[in-house]
Amino acid sequence: MTEKSREKLNKFSTWFSVATLIFSIILFWAGMDFLKAEVFPHYYNPQKHQIVKQNPDTKEIYAWKDAGGNVYTPEDAQVKNFTWGITALLLFVMLTCTAIYNKATKYYTGVLLAREPARSNQNYVPRLQ
């Protein structure tokens, strides 16, 4: 690979890593909103729930209720499993963005190598049969 191609690859990988980072943050944020709204609806949401019991000193919420009058606590199964949902979402975002970055870098490396002039391999020694 020529020096010019390496510079192009370094510039592309830097630019694409920043773009991938921004994409991963947006994807994680959207995933968090989806998890809170659709997958774990019992998790405390100030727009949907009303506080029933709260520590006045630390402002920690102990119980909340929804419009139907159902009361939820941190011991509720959906509330407890929310951290596992976040962990799975984080792993999904990390693995997806890493795979996208690797595939894009490999593809661009192939494009750069295809554009380079053909060089004869000076160290090639044919095998004796």
Question: Can you give a write-up of this model?
Answer:
It is a single chain. The two termini are 31 Å apart. With 129 residues, the chain is mainly α. Helices cover 58% and strands 9% of the residues. It has 3 helices and 3 strands. The protein has a 3-stranded antiparallel sheet with strand order 1-2-3, with no helix packed on it. It has helices spanning 3-39, 77-80, 82-115; strands at residues 50-54, 61-65, 71-72. The longest helix has 37 residues, at 3-39. The protein is rod-shaped and about 80 Å long. The chain has 2 domains: 1-40 and 81-116; 42-73, no CATH class. Helix 1 packs antiparallel against helix 3.
Short description:
The protein is mainly α and 129 residues long.
Structural class: mainly alpha
> In order across it, which strands form the biggest sheet?
1-2-3
Enumerate the spans where pLDDT stays under 50 for 5 or more consecutive residues: none
Mean pLDDT: 89
Instruction: Supply Rg.
Output: 26 Å
Following the backbone from N to C, one meets helices and strands in this order, namely HEEEHH
Quaternary structure annotation = single chain
What amount of the residues lies in strands?
5-15%
Q: How many β-strand runs?
A: 3
- The shape is rod-shaped
Q: How far apart are the termini? A: 31 Å
Helix content: 55-70%
Reported for the largest beta sheet, the result is: 3 strands, antiparallel
User: What number of domains?
Assistant: 2
Given the structure, what is the number of helices? 3
